[in-house]
Specification:
Largest sheet of chain A: 4 strands, parallel
Radius of gyration of chain B: 24 Å
Strand content of chain A: 5-15%
Distance between the termini of chain A: 29 Å
Order of helices and strands of chain B: EEHEEHEEEHHHHHHHHHHHH
Number of strands of chain B: 7
Number of helices of chain A: 13
Strand order of the largest sheet of chain B: 2-1-5-3-4
Largest sheet of chain B: 5 strands, mixed
Order of helices and strands of chain A: EHEHEHHEHHEHHEHEHHEHH
Helix content of chain A: 40-55%
Helix content of chain B: 40-55%
Largest interface: A-B, 68 and 72 residues
Mean pLDDT of chain A: 96
Shape of chain A: globular
Structural class of chain A: alpha/beta
Low-confidence stretches of chain A: none
Radius of gyration of chain A: 19 Å
Oligomer: heterodimer
Strand order of the largest sheet of chain A: 2-1-3-4
Amino acid sequence: MKKFAFFPGCVLEGSAKEALDATIKVAAALEIELVEIPGWTCCGASHVQDMDPMAALAINARNMALAEKMGLPILTVCNTCTLMLRQAKSALDGDDRLKEKVNRVIASGGYEYVGFSDITHLLWVLAEDTAFWQRRISRPLTGTKVAAYYGCHILRPQKIMNFEDSANPRSLETVIRAVGAEPVDFPDKLQCCGFHAFWTAEKDAVFLTGKHVDNAVKAGADMMATPCPLCQMQLDMYQPEGRQAVHSTAEIPVLHLAQLIGLGLGFSPAELGINRHVSAASKVMLNQ
Amino acid sequence: MPTMTFTIRRFVEAKSFSRDYSFEYMAGNTVLDGLIFIKEKLDPSLAFTASCRNGVCGACALRVNGQAVLACETAIESLAARYHSARLTIAPLGNFTVLRDLVVDWQPKLDRMKQVKPWLIPQDAFSADTGCRQSQTDFDKIRGYTDCILCGACVSECSKLAADSADFLEPFAFVKAQKYVADSRDDAPLKHLDPAIQAGLWRCMHCEECTAKCPKSLDPAEDIAKLRVMAFKKAMVNSAGAQHAQAFYEDINDIGRLNEAKLAIRTDGIMKSLTRVGLAYRLMKVDKLDPFHLPEPIKNISKVQKILKAAKEADKS
């Protein structure tokens, strides 16, 4: 039994609720115990540091301090949450004076950051040891071609994330194979979905969505899968605009990582919340 | 000795094509050694740029399997191990105009960089006699920036430039802007900051490609964040990007977590949000958006508020 302090992140409480449902079901089925960190806050979402870098550090020092009290490593299911937490940990662990300063800040709320809690992502837990869960795959996705879409913040910067080679990662393909499906290589798999600049560069974010979806379909994929709920939202919700931007007819389901595993575990698409997707949800229904 | 094949993307007189070159290599041979061997022994028509062979001049940056590297400091054996392959695709840097083969056109990039005035605007107190002195502490704040060798690796995989370069500067230009904004000797930080804002500061996609690719371990993504912090300090926040960051900060202060239902209005304002009615309907149809969902504050929100207040105070000290 693996046990983690679970950091769901904000979108899993809102527009990506299906990712939360799927994560909870899959974790239970794989005997991964997730204990939600009580009172966690938003990680800053790669925006707060633009306004107040000390605040961005402090809220994540508090989040990590909460997990330290639980005596558990943190597990997230969002690339950006993972990066924000790991970035804060790296800054604090690498600079004693900064750590002291931030500890004085969070002491105002009664917290202390020590630095012994690690931060991992569901993808990494599944990829580094497939043996403990692969035998539970009851309905392998044999013949399903899945385009692995990593998203930026689970890979870059290398020195912060450092689970694998950010220029040639294998974790997502490893998990796709373990669930019985076939990973499809496509040129966009390490590229950015544009989510974080949607409000300031909408035309470009939508163009990237269209391009990634179009290339995944051209590569022969039946679906895309991503470990990041933000990439999933961008690539799923904006496919109509994306198609228009790149003059394509490509439409493809984009699955959260937990949904992909869940299908292999025998959960129905509806149980995994795939009906809450905007694009091509029915194609997943038909294939099952 | 092991054999390597470079599949080189060639571009000659408006024609694009790929050509394979195979050669034997030894441990320690670099991509640049391979290119020099090809030019000297296999195909003198191949064009590439290189000078110092030591990671100092920045002339030899190119793409290997789609990722920017300095050819002179990247060992062939490490790439063969990285990709488990005896074949590598060599291409010119991305997001540049290619002149020939692996040679790209730097002139437009340097012209664009001038927008941020990448030079010191000295204070009146300085003179030719007394110089432009600064303290060691102030110098330490900017010394790392001189490591930028203008190799262009940060440009190659930049997501925003790949989508559209018309309204966004190259990452190294933002690094230069921050360098002079942070320089205590500079008299007019706004003369660097303002053009950086005009040239797309808030359009960066946070993809971290620039930081991942810098061979000198500079952090352009962090410099973009620092310029944005300065924009807040100077109250230059009349933009969707700044409003967006502020919305996250305020949500953390008010309830601890993001209030998605209000995000669009706070980022874009009511008028522009109204143009997104079609999207909102699309999301509501599949239960992805609930405009009436008002998240409750987390337990102990008052402690979070104290922390944010203390963070502000700490920033001043």
